[in-house]
Specification:
Blueprint: E1 3-6, H1 12-23, E2 27-32, H2 39-45, E3 49-53, H3 59-73, E4 78-81, H4 96-124, E5 127-132, H5 145-165, E6 170-177, H6 199-212, H7 220-231, E7 239-242, H8 244-263, H9 265-269
Parallel strand pairs: 1-2, 1-4, 2-3, 4-5, 5-6, 6-7
Helix pairs in contact: 1-7, 3-4, 4-5
Length: about 270
């Protein structure tokens, strides 16, 4: 029986994962900005679950969630940084307030919760940290510059982190979902298609997202099952794409990068002494 701490449990992948963890008989600290949305878990699973308010941008709130796991269950085995959101728009029309908010939640929130958990994992010399990134963490997602900036940050932070955690027996895995059939795409409902100069990228993305909602290929319950499999592996991967669309998009982007490196190889090497 393992103890999980999951952020962003009120909907989407976090909700699916929370339910899967508890159905498997593991213990869970389920968190959300408003934990009242999680009381059904406590009603259904009783002593297996604790629910807590968690603002991932607040270091004391993150520490309180870790402390709750230790006080309630005596251990913390798996931390899943799932909380996050994204807004659509061009760089020009996305306010700095929106940039800061998305980066605070998606990137700094991941760092804050991770740092709160590390001393416990180090003392145990075991555990898993699972970071929910996105295909937008490997590809500059159209009309999502702030979101991609944050998720690319999560990827770099987590890759660096993994080299340190390896020394104390803690695994770090970055999961990169494609389109999951959740409410994530609903942000396009209120998005403005914006200036005509950017319509081929921004407007087109927003229109596509509106049509995409409810048609995403990824099943959140199956994604949750994969995350549980990863958490039980002796040697989990550093990165894994989730969904056929994620595999296809990341593969194509990486191939394009390799081609670009090869095309400019001579110029790149020309700066050496």
């Amino acid at each position: 029986m393992k103890t999980w701490l999951i952020t962003g449990c009120s909907k989407g992948l976090g909700k699916a994962l929370s339910e899967a963890v508890l159905a498997a008989g593991d213990r869970l600290v389920a968190t959300a900005r408003n934990s009242k949305e999680l009381t059904y878990l406590r009603d259904r699973y009783g002593d297996l679950v604790r629910v807590a308010d968690l603002d991932v941008t607040n270091d004391q709130s993150a520490q309180d969630a870790v402390n709750l796991a230790m006080q309630s269950f005596g251990s913390l085995d798996i931390v899943v940084n799932n909380a996050g959101y994204g807004e659509l728009g061009s760089v020009e029309e996305t306010s700095l307030t929106s940039f800061r908010s998305q980066i605070e939640t998606n990137l700094l929130g991941t760092i804050i919760v991770t740092k709160a958990a590390i001393p416990t994992l180090r003392a145990q010399r075991r555990g898993n940290i699972i970071q929910v990134s996105s295909t937008g963490g490997r590809i500059g997602a159209p009309a999502r510059a702030a979101y991609s900036a944050a998720k690319w940050g999560v990827e770099g932070f987590s890759e660096s982190l993994s080299r340190e955690m390896k020394l104390i027996g803690v695994h770090v895995t970055i999961v990169e979902p494609g389109g999951l059939r959740t409410d994530f795409a609903r942000s396009s409902d209120k998005a403005c298609e914006g200036r005509p100069e950017y319509d081929a990228v921004v407007g087109a993305t927003i229109r596509m997202q509106r049509q995409y909602h409810g048609q995403q290929p990824g099943d959140p319950a199956k994604a949750a099952s994969v995350i549980m499999t990863l958490a039980n592996m002796d040697k989990p991967p550093l990165r894994i794409a989730l969904g056929s669309d994620a595999v296809q998009a990341i593969e194509a982007a990486d191939e394009e990068r390799f081609c670009e490196i090869d095309r400019w190889r001579s110029l790149s090497r020309s700066i050496d002494f």
